[in-house]
Amino acid sequence: MSNSPSSSTRITPRAWFVMAALAITGQIAWAVENSWFNTFVYDTITPDPRPVAWMVACSAITATLTTLLMGTLSDRAHTRWGRRRPFILFGYICWGISTILFPTVAYIKVTSVAVVMVVLADSLMTFFGSTANDAAFNAWTADIAASDQRGRVEGVLNLSVFIAQIVAMVAAGMLIDSVGYFIFFYALGAIVLVVGWVAGSLLREPPQPAVDVHQRSFWAEFGELFSLDTLRQNRALFILLLFIMITSIGMQISFPYMIVYLLNYVGITKTDFSIVGGAVMVGSALVAIPFGMLADRWNKRAMMAIALVVSSLGGILLSLVKTLPLLATAGFLWQGFAVAVSVASVAWLKDLLPEQNRGKFLGIRMIFWIAIPMIIGPAIGSALIQAYGIPTVSNGEAGFIPVPIIFQVGSLVSLLGLLPLFFTGKKHANRLPSA
């Protein structure tokens, strides 16, 4: 008997509130981690681009392994507190504490030791964030939504992403300019901790599936993720994941160095970036929210292809302009349509997830969406910066200022994602039922 919500099951107002609160808070934390953590390392530890690449890669590996292991574990959990809830509640609390502790690595005066510690601190924070958000929270949103509601859920979740991005981008730069990195990270960690505690306490789950007395061991089930049978049985899902992987590699070539590029090559201030970032996020919301609604009704493949081309052209344009209005326009095209691609692909992906193993397969998504792109992309970006960047010295440490080529190469790589998208075939392009 299936425990998936029926099409007549409505998501309660309480569940929408919990979903929005956890999504906004989690996305603020991830947005800061993906952008301002890198800038923090560049400004306070070393301008060498390699530590940023190492930090992003280790964080990606941690996120992927954590989501695979904890997602599979949450699929199998049967506790008095629920299936996903313990992972979400305690994960968010620890996520907040580790964020508060993160900037203390700057007190270490030996650069080589500081680099090692900042990588470890970021990985620890990522472990808790991925347990709470990537594994348990994302699986919970799939648990409570019927197939015909998932596009709407993705639209709301991505609205939360935009709200979080606006807060993170607009508030972050201004706050860092005015109070510094330390107070900013302390405040962010406190918000994650408190919201995670309150919303996690309010979270409710659908009835847990009955325990299968013949259930295989954890490691046998985990190992099944990497079998050829799994690939054959979920061919459309893996083709879609290949598309996500290639486009994400392209984005990660430039994104970790974006703020460093804008501040040091283009010459804008953190407050200027906040203004540009806020404008980009508002404009992007106007594109991606309708895109999520249309994803349930139209040809996803065509929508994703068009949005990918526009996003790549926006990335190239971003490398060619320097005035704030043009930076905002280029940033809107680059990021807004990249998020539109993500909205359609994630909605499609959740339709293809096997019903009883959503947490486990969301872990597979992390390999293609996070681990491989965040290892390969930043490494390519770092190599390009070292080969073509402008030499500089900051805090007595030698390094390089990023240059426009990272956006140009990243956009061209993203376009290669059109190849696997072509092989999805028209019959896979429309909304599909859960496997």
Automatic annotation (TrEMBL):
Output the Gene Ontology cellular-component terms: plasma membrane
Q: Which GO terms describe its molecular function?
A: transmembrane transporter activity
Q: Which UniProt keywords apply?
A: Membrane, Sugar transport, Transmembrane, Transmembrane helix, Transport
Please name the InterPro entries in this protein's record: MFS, MFS_dom, MFS_trans_sf
Q: Where in the cell is it found?
A: Cell membrane
Please give the Gene3D superfamilies that the UniProt record associates with this protein: MFS general substrate transporter like domains
Just give the chief location class. membrane
What topology in the membrane does the UniProt record assign? Multi-pass membrane protein
Span-the-membrane segments of this chain are 12-32, 52-74, 86-108, 114-135, 156-176, 182-203, 237-263, 275-295, 302-321, 327-349, 361-385, 405-423
Q: Where do the Major facilitator superfamily (MFS) profile domain residues begin and end?
A: 236-435
The record, for SUPFAM superfamilies, names:
MFS general substrate transporter
Q: Which Pfam families match?
A: MFS_1
Keyword Cytoplasm attached: no
Q: What is this protein called?
A: MFS/sugar transport protein
